[in-house]
Specification:
Blueprint: H1 3-22, E1 25-26, H2 27-34, H3 38-50, E2 54-57, E3 60-63, H4 64-67, H5 74-77, H6 82-93, E4 101-104, H7 108-116, E5 123-127, H8 130-137, E6 142-146, E7 150-152, E8 157-159, H9 161-167, E9 172-178, E10 181-183, E11 187-190, H10 193-204, E12 206-212, E13 224-227, E14 234-237, H11 243-251, E15 255-258
Helix pairs in contact: 2-3, 6-7, 7-8, 9-10
Amino acid sequence: MDSEKRSIVRRHNYILEALQKRGELKIAELSDELGVSSVTLRKDVKMLEDKRLLFHTHGNIHPIDQYMARDVSVNEKEYIATDEKMRIAQRAATLIDDNDAIIIASGTTVLFLARLVEARGSLTVLTSALNVGVALCSKPDVEIIHLGGAVRKTSTSVSGPFAQQMLSQFSCSKLFLGVDGIDLEYGCTTSSMMEANVNQCMISAARRTIVLADSSKFGKRGFGRICSFERVHQIITDDKVSDSMVGTLEDMGVEVTVV
């Protein structure tokens, strides 16, 4: 092995070991640590990314298992970041107007919202999530319209052409959308392609899209792309989100509410 190849191997080993210890790395800082140019380091990162050993976004390097959103059952996710989800849901509930017609998608954070919903006047809720529909059933002044389709068991929600066709018949004021990942380059994502398709139809059926996502969703990318940030009006998240993330999203025209 010649000296150049040995240098590359050493750098790659250093990057992977540092990533394992720290969880996230900055390309600029790593360039200084290794004594190489940012151009050289970016080539190294690209080689490791092609081997699916890491992912990088906007100058940061992430472990692949941290970066990729997993398909986790709602029964498991409901007990993760519960305080943060409750604060997010409480703020979202204040955005529901008298005599409103809204869409509540699937996910644990929007389920927290459904449990807090109180009708002022006549409230109509359109949803794809079975657990959201059940949570709303005990509220006498809430009219529930449930989409039909194939049930995805991990999210207890429906998807497919029947759900998409139904959504084309409605116009609502707001969509409260749960996501599995928020990536600055890729946008909002979920771990299911079919659910992403239904979410896209929900966005088209609503005048305003409000994403409810705790800070753990940032910097992750799910398999199914829902939309770019051009389609998102507001994101409500918790105070563990980084200032740089908030600033970048606001520069893109997204209203970010931190609770």
